[in-house]
Write a structure and sequence with these properties.
By secondary structure, this protein is mainly alpha-helical. The chain is built from 29 helices and no strands. This is Pentatricopeptide repeat-containing protein.
Length: 512
Amino acid sequence: MSMKWRNLTSQNSILMALLHPLRYQSTPSPSSYAAIFKFLTGLNLLKLGQQIHSHLIIRGLNPNSFLGAKMVAMYASSGDIDSAIVLFDSIRQNASILLYNSIIRACSLYGLSEKSVGIYLEMNSAGVPGDYFTFPFVLKSCASLCNLGFGKSVHGKCLRSGLEFDFYVATSLIDFYVKCGELHDAHKLFDQMPVRDVASWNALISGHMKNGMVHLAEDLFSRIPNNNKNIVSWTTMISGYTQNSLPDQALQLFDEMTTDLSNIKPNWVTIMSILPACSQSSSLDQGKKIHNYATSIGLDSNPSVQTALAAMYAKCGSLLDAQICFQKIPQNRKNLVSWNTMISALAAHGYGIESVSTFNDMVRAGVQPDAITFTGLLSACSHSGLVDIGLNYFNSMKIAYNIEPRHEHYACIVDLLGRAGRLKEAYELTLKMPMTPGASIWGALLSGSKNYRNLEIAEISAKHLFVLEPENSGSYVILSNMYAEAGMWVEVNNLRDLVKARGVEKNPGCSW
């Protein structure tokens, strides 16, 4: 018998034993129910859990704080956070620390950070002290909210409870300070820890990488004893290198990780972290090598890995490989990121019609688009001259999808109209925008004006760019050339004097 079936048989045997008192006792005790809900937690058997809950109600039993904690944990682990909250609300008057911990944990894991913090405040008001199980999840919620002040007050509670250097609490404090950008406080706490868990090292490495302090992160990584480095340590470093545009270092560390001498092997998160390094260095061969490695260890079936592979291939110039990876993802497992990746890939390669078609497939599949979707879609319309289609999608964003157009969406439409020679419309849209136009919008307008020799709008656009990007020589060159074409030599000389006065240097031509 396989391990899978042995485990299933064992679970069924345990469940039957736990259900036995409910069948043959006229009034089962709350403890009988508590054992069942505890067993069901994490098994994703929501329907069975609801049936046991109904049985409890029919027998006229009301869950106490102990039983309620087990029921909240079962509902939350089975994907029904709403029922967990309703249940907590019905018995919260005399809640114990166990019940409070159960609901705080559930809300924190579901991203309901404000509710998690609110229940913790209620817990404090009720005089129920927090413990080593309470504080990590409250701190996780504080980090999510970037609420530094409240997080520090929780730190004070940890101190008064004598839990500051508990493994889990200390690591949660370091993670909280890192995510709130307080690296000094995180380092101070780390240095004071008598015993350091690898999770605390990883949290600090991640913080330094996110703040561009690569050398400090490298120093920390080198100081972790080799037998203590785990998959998170390696992946954090690789991801940090790619985030800081250091693809060579990322690829070198990945190669080191995949040697026969390494006792840690990449997982799907590692593969997703290293693929952007191939994109940054335009290393298609390296990307294919990593793809083959992922296939050899069975990770290529992961939809997130296939999506990352599609993005890598598209950015390295192989649209066909990107499409193959996208098509390998089962239709019911293509999420928003997968669709956005393919829409943007087609747009970048100039396949506007195909990008629009992919968007329509996404909507038919029941996946709701977001702002990123429309950036890719409108860019595709712009690059392929699909003016009316692009305008229709832009106008439908708010009405049909409840998405407020952002600066980048306006930039796409200005570029769309500018490329089509509809410069007056593009300029009028720029004036009507609900936000201040940035360099991307004035740049699109200047480019369109150059192509259609509209000196009036070119002057307006360039003068805005001289303020927004005073060191970008391209704007000066375009306007100077347009003045020269029109025989406006006084303006050409004035512009050259301005360039010299500002010390602007012409960017040299470059190519991949």
